[in-house]
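If you are new to this repository, start here. Below is one unmodified record pulled from the training split, so you can see the exact layout before writing a loader.
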Amino acid sequence: MSWSEPVSRRGMLGLLVLLPAGCGFQPLYGEGAPASRMAGRVDVGLIDGRAGFELRERLTNRLGQPVDPAYRLAVTLTLKSTGTALTQENVTTRFDVTGLAEYTLTPVAGGPAVASGAVRSVTGFNAPDSVTSTAFAARAAEVDAERRLAVTLADQIVQRLALSADTWA
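And here is the target side for that same chain:
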């Protein structure tokens, strides 16, 4: 068979079946994988602020409601809003919100941290300066940006925990 000839569906499926075994690929959350053993074993502590609440909710949803937690996850969230666009009248109409979440995973029974780190992300929102725009609309846009940021940071934390789970889970 030459490279210019079409490959049959059966031949392609056969190659796909052999691919995971041949390259050492393992699903991160597959049955028996270390990351799958995190489910329901991590108690997420309270996090200050509205964005902290959103972050904790997302972490709990991703890690599972703790039934018999073996680990406690502590997260400190810092948000910083920076104006990035000005009108000719010197009114800020675009903001970037930077979020930094520092986390530490410790055994409930005590002992040193088994995982720790920090994740960072940036998102933005508009606060247009016009007759039809209101302060309420600008505040709603800011709250939504913080919610999006919290979801992104939570997903990054879960991914990092999942990648390191084989050393602690």
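Two things worth knowing about this chain: The beta strands are 42-44, 71-86, 92-107, 115-126. Residues 131 and 137 are 12 Å apart (CA to CA).
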